[in-house]
Design a protein that fits this description.
12% strand; little secondary structure
């Protein structure tokens, strides 16, 4: 790709700015600390390698790096954790996901060993949500889960401290005998 320097200016001791023309437009490079030669070299290096149609003359969108890795081809390659080809799925339990990662807690699919999985809605702070370890909300998780009937949740199973082991507020007149 041909690049033509349109203008170069020194902006004080060690500060340089350059404007380059390339096939894909104008590129402005500036450096407050680099000398002219180094600024021009960095400007050209930083600006090359784009995959635009004008910058990538062979239009194969691979930056000519020889990479032919493809998730979904049935072969585990590069950084893929798995690849089951056409069986990759984002909805079937325990399947390799379509981004070639292993099934995991937080992927919105209830897999083996998980009791729930709401993906990004898993939370250790939101009432009644599936927890971040893919277990359901429960008494003792330090979140008052109103949908489960909790009126308190102090994170322990000790009665007599104001919140009983069933996550109910202890008070005189509640119809139960509370120890403590």
């Amino acid at each position: 790709m041909e690049r033509l320097v349109e203008s170069v200016s020194e902006r004080g001791p060690g500060a340089t700015a350059a404007v380059l023309h390339s096939g894909s437009g104008i590129i402005l490079c500036a450096s407050p600390v680099l000398n002219l030669s180094l600024a021009l070299i960095l400007c050209v290096v930083v600006s090359c390698g784009d995959d635009s149609s004008s910058g990538n003359q062979n239009e194969n969108q691979n930056n000519n790096n020889g990479s032919q890795l493809l998730c979904g081809n049935g072969q585990v390659e590069g950084i893929e954790e798995c690849d089951e080809g056409a069986q990759n799925s984002d909805s079937l339990p325990d399947a390799c996901r379509t981004d070639c990662t292993e099934a995991r807690c937080g992927d919105s699919v209830v897999d083996t060993g998980e009791q729930c999985d709401e993906g990004p809605r898993n939370s250790d702070a939101v009432p009644d949500a599936c927890r971040s370890d893919c277990t359901p909300s429960r008494c003792g998780d330090e979140v008052v889960d109103i949908g489960r009937g909790e009126t308190c949740d102090d994170g322990n199973a000790v009665s007599g401290d104001g919140c009983d082991s069933d996550c109910q507020v202890e008070f005189c007149g509640n119809g139960r005998r509370d120890d403590g």
